[in-house]
Amino acid sequence: MATKSSTTPTNIRWTVCALLFFATTINYLDRQLFSNLVPYLEDDLRLGPVDLSLINVSFLLSYGLGMLFVGRLIDTVGTKKGLGISFLLWNVSAMLHGLVGGLGALAAVRASLGITEAANYPACVKTVGEWFPKRERATANGWFNAGSNIGAVLAPLLAISLAEAVGWKLCFFILGGAGLVWIFFWRRLYYAPADHPTVSKEELEYIRQDGEVETEKMSYSTLLGLRPVYAIALAKGLSESPWWFYLTWLPKFLSDEFQLNATFMRIAIPVVYLIADFGAVGGGWLSSRLIQRGSDVGKARKTAMLVCALSAVPVMAVGSLMKTKEIVGIPTVAIVIFLVAIAASAHQGWSSNVYALITDTVPKSGTAMMVGIATAAGVTGASVFQVFVGKSVELTGSYAICFVIAGGLYLIALLALHLLLPKVEMSQPKRRVSPPLVGGIAASLVIVLLLLQTQLTKPAFQTQADYEAKVASKGGSSKQITDAQVGWMRASWFKISEPGKPDRFELVKFDDAGRPVIEKKPIKDLKKYKGPTMEQLAAGTF
Length: 542
Description:
This protein is an alpha+beta fold. It folds into 2 domains: about 10-210 and about 215-455, Up-down Bundle (Growth Hormone, Chain: A), CATH 1.20.1250; about 465-540. Helix content is about 70%, strand content about 5%. It contains 19 helices and 7 strands. A hairpin with a 2-residue loop joins strand 1 (about 325) and strand 2. The longest helix is centred in the first third of the chain and has 34 residues, at about 10-45.
């Protein structure tokens, strides 16, 4: 152990927090490149809405799968080595996006990125638990988690500019490789508190003021014997879906609904995540402040989480705003961006306190594994929601129901957390869960998710004949009258005649396999539509 100074107090813990902040910034920059580049690559790679949801799910499920083992890995090999290796691998995976040429390859590199990025949050939360006392943990979590918003801000600013200048493929290579410089600082500056060469005796005593005892390394069967594991995992499983919805679908939502150009997108998306930074720090600060003023730890955390949950509710109104161009003189797009920004801010404040709850209730030797389990639960829920979003957009042409669900999930999650964990206190291992039982439950969950994904992403029609048979089953008839184009997808207009109803026109797109997809949006709202207008269709002058 290095000799500690007893005369010069230090604040090394905040330097460590800064390293975690920059790691998380790069983590989110790399994962957000894809969603911001979708408008540039979807035609080249011939991707439809269901394809995009499957790609998002391939990242999320791999991310969740990675969480199940990287937590144990970090608890075993240590934060310095575990995060350093993972950081190198995920940046390489980010660069490989520039080599893909189709759906299969893209899904594979997204899965690779998901697995390798999984180490970041378990390592960061474990490090905060080791370097900060309870009264500062939520604040420290908020600061490093703020990096996720900075990464999400930088992604559109850098990705869109580079894509316009050099194309989307080189964009992945440039930005994926730029983050590697962080590894140099991590190797030079990071040590465990007791081994740090410059940390003072006073700071070490401050860090250890809670008197937490380091226990032996935990196994999963021991960790799963703790009650807080299930409460926090369920809360994460319910509350991660909105955040991943904003991360992966916001650029496409703004493009679809408002036909925003690249310049406006470079401004709109960063605004959302800059505002979210206030939530990341503010939510952690609120519970830390309540604790410093004498509040019980559990009450402080849950009070802050309730404030965040209520702040997310207004985003439920987004869907109902799409029918108007402005409200009291304010453009609807500005109101929508503000509501999403507040919801994103609420999520980040919520997350800062969830991570603090982990270090409040789980021994340090199991912290990284617990973060892994909680995050795996979160991305499992988010994966289901991703598939639902893709299917909902395909069938309805609207994001309205998605925003309604996103706004209400936090209150449900908080209720579930409180019922399962009414008192927040450090738990000690008292029993073990049978490893075969754990494996069986995990395998069953994976099978259910795969079946659900298969059913939700199953095309409504396999052939044009199926589509025409569906119309005929309602007593109507369909007649293909002219061709059109929507982005890369060829399309056709059909004239639908049904008993007792006026004739109508329906635009049907076809994917690479020739499967029909009914376009629900009016053609005036389709950014990449080429074909006759509704007036021309009605007049028969196409």
